[in-house]
Write a structure and sequence with these properties.
The chain contains 27 helices and 21 strands. By secondary structure, it is α+β, with helices and mostly antiparallel strands. GO terms for molecular function: [protein-PII] uridylyltransferase activity; magnesium ion transmembrane transporter activity.
Length: 604
């Protein structure tokens, strides 16, 4: 029986000969409760891997920096240095593998895949993790059913309708095909058929001809319960672009090649199409209720939080826009600007969150006439599943539904009176994105803000200082875990907020127009305000934290639990997830130090 577990990365990359070399050189060592394994500044002799028990890493101030569980290794950073930076102590009786440093160095030189693990920064590690998901994404083609992607039809149309009527029905339904029935047979009319018929019969074509004269009746069908792969094979075999979908031998819709391709990349086209054809708030409500199912399906197919959040930003934006256009008269819609803010505005929110929105109205419009419609919009979004904002940052709050001149006065007040609430309002407004109406109103307010803050170093320092708002939550966090069998980490306070707000502060100073945090990071790196490697690490760390948060939220929804995506139960994370979480939080700490240094926060 092998003593060493080669099932985890990077040891699973070793060849059989290399595995034998490592196993022959590896010792198993035992440490009692509170026994010191490594003392800071000790010379580096071995790499340790936890078999059983728990080990804590502590700094010179006795603060616990990390906890290591079975399959975790430490201290890989020390393999390329002369001594250990920190001390490592057994929390409880622990068994460890001890691999001689010389053996690890030898294997690194022999095996590039093995070596890459130790040299990789967090950006590389997370990229490799994402690459490993591609195979899983392709599996969706073999497991997804036709029912997940086909385009349903409400009814079969008579083959006696003329070509003009058929075209009008397709235009009204915003579809590229039409199913008809004539003399007991099912026929199909498509956009390409209209094109070909017109080109070939331009001289003799009568637009009032019955559509059955031109329809195709030799159709290939697939049952609604068949696998999507079966449908694709039939399309390829018959060299066709679409198949008719049947349920209990009766036609119920059509599946096109483009539907399959869209399904593999995302399921969003189904929601997007339903959004476009919706003509009432009731229909929009039905679409909104399907959002979580779409997110679950896409995430199961391999799409990560960063991409999902950008997709949901588009879908949510269109949903809010259509709702507002159905609620308010055109004169109000055209003379105002509806905003979404916070994570929704940045495009970094996947699951439905509290409403964060506002309405800017032109000075020529009586604001009192607007407020009843703003109230109805807030109520409608709550009906759609977007709960009210605890801080009342919604259009039904007069403070967030104002004329453009009133908003300018509000911005002046925020800047001139930098209380915690005013600074938070300013931060929320900075992430505003226009989704309906006159976008120049938002542009005017942004310009006013930048002009107002020009050269105001003190205000910018006060704004940036919020990155340290939750330091007490993070300080001694691992020590808190030791005192409890179960402990949840607030991943927003410890991870995402310091990154998002630090980037926001640098962006405000630089007056850049980007809203999304990833785009802001890239722009700041271009301007030299963040070093390139740090910018890459921060982006990947944020993406990982967002994905961890999303997985936690989806798990809660699956088990009908209270949705608290920020509260991460660390004991449920895998070894790799814990390793990446530690790396991500170290990157957050580096970035906070960078922002603090940039704004001289350590001296204030």
């Amino acid at each position: 029986m092998n003593r060493f577990d080669f099932s985890t990365a990077p040891y699973n990359a070793l060849t059989p000969k290399q595995r034998n070399t490592l196993q022959a050189a590896t010792d198993i060592v035992f440490f009692d409760d509170n026994a010191t394994i490594i003392t800071a500044q000790d010379s580096i002799e071995a790499l340790y891997i936890v078999i059983k028990g728990m080990v804590k890493e502590i700094d010179a101030n006795q603060e616990v920096l990390a906890l290591y569980h079975p399959s975790d290794s430490f201290d890989t950073r020390a393999l390329f240095e002369q001594s250990y930076r920190h001390s490592f102590v057994a929390v409880e009786q622990s068994l460890l593998y001890a691999i001689p440093k010389a053996i690890i160095r030898q294997l690194i030189e022999e095996n590039s895949d093995f070596g890459a693990y130790f040299f990789a920064n967090i950006a590389d590690k997370l990229k490799n993790q994402a690459d490993g998901r591609r195979e899983h994404e392709l599996a969706g083609l073999f497991t997804a059913k036709v029912r997940d992607a086909y385009r349903p039809y409400d009814k079969l149309h008579s083959g006696t309708i003329n070509l003009i009527e058929a075209a009008k029905i397709m235009q009204h339904n915003k579809s590229k095909s039409l199913l008809i029935e004539h003399e007991g047979k099912i026929g199909l009319v498509t956009e390409s058929l209209f094109r070909d018929v017109f080109i070939k019969n331009a001289d003799t074509l009568n637009p009032f001809d019955a559509v059955h004269l031109w329809a195709k009746f030799d159709l290939i069908s697939v049952d609604i319960q068949d696998f999507m792969f079966t449908a694709l094979l039939k399309m390829m075999h018959h060299r066709i672009q679409r198949v008719v979908i049947t349920k209990q031998a009766k036609p119920v819709g059509v599946l096109e090649q483009v539907d399959i391709l869209a399904f593999l990349s995302n399921h969003s086209h189904l929601i997007a199409e339903k959004l476009e054809v919706a003509t009432s708030l009731d229909e929009l409500a039905e679409v909104a209720l399907q959002m979580n199912h779409t997110i679950w399906a896409l995430h199961s197919g391999g799409m990560q939080a960063k991409q999902l959040s950008q997709l949901m930003q588009v879908l949510n934006g269109r949903l809010f826009e259509k709702a507002w256009q159905m609620i308010a008269p055109d004169t109000i819609v055209q003379n105002s600007c509806l905003l979404v803010m916070g994570s929704e505005g940045r495009g970094e929110q996947v699951l439905k969150t509290d409403q964060d929105n506002a309405l800017i109205v032109k000075d020529s419009i009586d604001i009192a006439s607007v407020r009843p419609y703003a109230d109805k919009l807030s109520a409608t979004l709550e009906r759609f599943g977007y709960p009210p904002c605890m801080g009342k940052i919604m259009v039904n709050n007069p403070a967030w539904c104002q004329s453009v001149s009133q908003f300018e006065q509000t911005i002046s007040h925020w800047c001139n009176n930098p209380s915690p609430d005013n600074l938070m309002n300013l931060a929320i407004f900075m992430d505003a994105r226009a989704i309906s109406g006159d976008e120049t109103l938002l542009d005017r307010l942004r310009g006013y803000l930048y002009q107002h803050l020009d050269g105001d170093v003190g205000m910018l320092m006060n704004f940036a200082r919020a990155i340290n708002q939750f330091d007490e939550d993070g300080r001694g966090f691992f020590m808190q875990i030791l005192g409890q069998k179960k402990h949840k980490m607030d991943i927003k306070k410890m991870g995402t907020f310091p990154v998002v707000h630090g980037v926001r502060a640098l962006s405000l100073q630089a007056k850049i127009s980007e809203i999304n945090t990833f785009e802001r990071i890239a722009r700041l790196a271009q301007l030299g305000l963040i070093e390139k490697q740090l910018s890459q690490d921060v982006s990947e760390a944020l993406a990982y934290l967002m994905n961890t948060r999303l997985k936690n939220g989806l798990t809660a929804l699956k088990h009908n639990q209270e949705l608290t995506p920020n509260q991460i139960a660390t004991e449920h994370l895998s070894t790799l997830e814990r390793d990446l979480l530690k790396d991500a939080l170290q990157v957050v700490k580096r970035f906070k130090n960078h922002v603090s240094s940039h704004f001289n926060l350590q001296y204030t």
